[in-house]
Amino acid sequence: MSAHLVCFNRDCRARFGITEVLYNCPKCGGLLEAAYEQPAPDPAQLKHSWRERRLSNAPLCQSGVWRYREMFPFLEDERHAVTLREGNTPLLDAPLAAEYGGLARITFKHQGFNPTGSFKDNGMTCGVAQARRLGMQRVACVSTGNTSASMAAYASAGGLEPLIFIPHGNISYGKLAQALEYGARTFQVEANFDQILALVRVLAERLGIYLLNSINPFRIEGQKSIVIEMMDQRDWRAPDWIVLPGGNLGNTSAFGKGLREMREIGLIDRLPRLAVIQAEGASPFYEYMRAAGRTPFRANEHPETLATAIKIGDPVSWPKAQFEIEQSNGVVERVTEQEIADAKAIIGKSGIGCEPASAATLAGIRKLTAAGAIDGNADVVAVLTGNVLKDPDYIFRYHTGQLKSPSGAAIEPHYGNQPVVVPNDPDRITELIG
Predict the structure, then answer these.
(1) What is the per-residue pLDDT for 1?
(2) If DSSP states are collapsed to H, E and C, what string results for 40-55?
(3) Which neighbouring-strand residues pair with 138?
(4) Does residue 60 sit within a domain?
(5) From the CB of residue 413, how many other CB atoms can be counted at a distance below 10 Å?
(6) 383, 90 in Cβ contact below 8 A?
(7) What is the DSSP letter of 21?
(8) Structurally, how many domains does the chain consist of?
(9) Who's near 240: CB < 8 A, 6+ residues apart?
(10) 338 domain-assigned
(11) pTM
(12) Up-side HSE of residue 361: CA atoms within 13 Å toward CB?
């Protein structure tokens, strides 16, 4: 087996060594992806091995990422891997959410069950492993929350120094608290996400720091495990649709790549259609795809949404995401702040809960079924990317009628659950309870 980096640009496809510290193709500037040359694996043997590993107490077998390492064999020495038992996230049925979304049934793949509470752990375990393999001492990321929490945990667990750059005053404190607790040096920069990413790329080259944003191709390799595990949990029956939020579009890239690779080796017999949902105030990919290639991709220099995990105006992975949407005959939709907030409340009433960005999936499904783009009887898996406690202030403000959109418009608590102040009087409380 040999592994290498290859330019994603179909007109270039230049190849580079797997240990070169690259994030873009030096020849054309395109994105990079990991590729492998190995004998075609036996799908039946892979399925058997992966099920057998569930019974093992070996750390890499207990990981819901490294269990599937044959699908991303870039490491020569598995001792570089750092695992916190990531992955192993459930598929959850939610009848109330299905009804709200116009479906007979919906299944949520809840990545909020990860060690740091988001899907970022699936990719970060691989990104940090590559950093250790390269002999790096410091790693960095730009983050509105989940990436910083995940990178801080995995870097610290792996003996590396995590450096985090965040937009000043524009982050969920639940997520920032995680990064601080995991020992990351944190810099609040007076700029937006996309401006800070450009800054950090300069610093990474100047100071020899390894960058672990989703432009890192090894992050994408780890995030493929989400759909591999999903297919394993479904006994390799591909759904009709997989619906996911769209921010930097790394998951869209990873899901599409993983699904295509699984089909190529015979693990699944068809590609699910991908549906990517963006927030209305941060939807450059939606705008670009709606124009159907008639205009070049344009970044949103001032993205605005309360769903901070997808508040990204210049998603670096958009070329890969476009390819995967086209390969799967997928769609891109956008939803309002009100639609996200209401969908989030419905997911909560289902007993599941999620961060605001996750709820964009259900809000998008509701729009797509109403428009006839998704059939009401379709087999749909929606990805919830983060834990319900990632943005607790958002939850409280919604249910108490205090939540406002970035423009200042009130968000109505259509499914609010206002706490009630009561006297210390059992008769009065009995009356209120009914």
Answers:
(1) 67
(2) CCCHHHHHHHHHHHCC
(3) 161
(4) no
(5) 18
(6) no
(7) -
(8) 1
(9) 272, 273, 375, 378, 379, 380
(10) yes
(11) 0.95
(12) 26
Angle at 123 between CA 347 and CA 160, to 5 degrees: 125
- Tens of pLDDT, residue by residue over 134-173, are 999 999 998 868 999 999 999 999 999 999 998 877 666 7
Per-residue model confidence as pLDDT tens digits over 95-116: 999 999 999 999 999 999 999 9
CB 178 within 8 A of CB 152: yes
Distance of CA 356 to the CA centre of its chain: 13
At 294, give phi and psi (nearest 5°).
Answer: -75, -20
CATH at residue 99: 3.40.50.1100
CA neighbor of 216 nearest in space, from 287, 282, 286, 150: 150
The string over 219-243, giving b where at least 16 C-beta atoms fall within 10 Å of a residue's C-beta and e elsewhere, is bbbbbbbbbbbbbbbbeeebbebbb
Range of the domain at 253: 91-114+220-399
Q: What is the per-residue DSSP string for 228-278? A: HHHHHHTTT---SEEEEE-SS-HHHHHHHHHHHHHHHHTS-SSPPEEEEEE
Beta bridge partners of 17: 4
Tell me the residue type at 37: E
CA distance 65 to 123: 9
Helix (H, G, I), strand (E, B) or coil at 111: helix
| Token duo for residue 60 | 């890499």
Residue 40 confidence (pLDDT): 84
* Tokens standing for residue 343: 């969908």
**Token digits of residue 420:** 């009630």
From 343, 372, 360, select the one nearest 305 (Cα to Cα): 360
Domain assignment present for 387: yes
Q: Is residue 124 part of a domain?
A: no
Asked which of 107-116, 307-316, 334-343, 405-414 is least confident by mean pLDDT, the reply is 307-316
Per-position DSSP letters for 293-362, written without gaps between them? TSS-----SS---S-GGG--SS-TTHHHHHHHHHHTT-EEEEE-HHHHHHHHHHHHHTT----HHHHHHH
Q: What are phi and psi of 208, to 5 degrees?
A: 70, 40
Work out the end-to-end distance of the chain between its first and last CA atoms, rounded to an integer number of angstroms: 69
β-bridge partners, 37: 2
